[in-house]
Write a structure and sequence with these properties.
The protein is an all-alpha fold. The chain contains twelve helices and no strands. It has a single domain, classed as MetI-like fold. Helices cover 69% and strands 0% of the residues.
Amino acid sequence: MTTMTTTAPTISSRVATARRLARSKLAVAALVVLGLVVLAAVSAPLIAPYDPNAQDLLVRLRPPAWTARGDASHLLGTDQLGRDVFSRLVYGARISLLVGVAAALLAGVIGAVVGLVAGYLGGWPDRILMRLADIQLAFPSILLALAVVGFLGSGLWYVIIVLGFTGWVSYARVVRSEALSLRSRDYVTEARAIGVSDPTIMRRHLLPGVLASLATIATLHVAAAIVAEASLSYLGLGVPRSVVTWGGMLSDGQLYLGTSWWLAVFPGLALMLTVLAINLAGDVLRDLTDPKAYRS
C-alpha cells in the first residue's frame, strides 16, 4: 500500500517561513510603511493638524518647517492656496486606499465568478468567457478607464467601478487555470456523483482552493488601482477636485516645480512608497501561501 504525500504547508513550515521573512529588512520595512499609511488613512481626522481644504493666503507657498523660510506650524509646508500639505497627504491616503481596495474587491469578485464558471464547466461557457477576456485585454486598461470616466463623468464611485471592471481578467485567468486542475479531484467528482449542484461545488469545493491566489493578485491590483486613480486625478478625470487625492496634488504641484518643489515631491513620494510597499507585501503574501516556499 502506498502512502499519499501532501504539499500542504504545515504549521511549523509556516512559522519557519514567517521567521525567514521577518529577518528580511526589506519585507519588514514594506510592512511598516504600509501599516503607517493605513494608520494615517484610518486616523486622518486625528492626525491631520488642519482641514485639508482650509485656505490661508497669508501663508501660501511656505516651504517645509526644516528649511530657512519654513513655518513650524506647517511641517511639510503649504500649497499655492495656503493649504497644509501634510494634512492633504494624510487625507489623500484615504482616497488612495479606498479606491485601491474597493476596485480590487470588485475585480476579484467578477474575476473569481468568471474563472470558476469557465474552469469548472468548460465547453462553450469557457470559450465565450475567455474570448471576452481576450477582447478586454485588447484595450489598454488606462485608456479604457479614461474613455469610460470621460463619458460618465468624474466621481469617486465611477472611478472604483471603472477600475474594477477593467481589472477582472487577471483574476479570471488564474482562477480558471486552478479550477481546471481542481475539478478533476476525487472530492469534486464524488460531490458531483451524489448530486451536488454545480454552484454549490464551485462555492464549497473550488473557491477555497483558489483564495490564496486571489489574495496575492488582489494585493498587486490594489497597487495598480492606486496608480490608475492617481493618473486619472492628475488628468482631472478622477474624483472631484474638492476631494483631496495624491494625483490631484501632483497635478497642482507641477506648475510650481521650479519654485515650490515640495508641492509635487511629497505626494509623489507618498504614492511611490505606498505602491512599492504594497507590491513587496504581495511578495510576502505569495511566499506565505505558496506551498513550494515551504520545501526550501
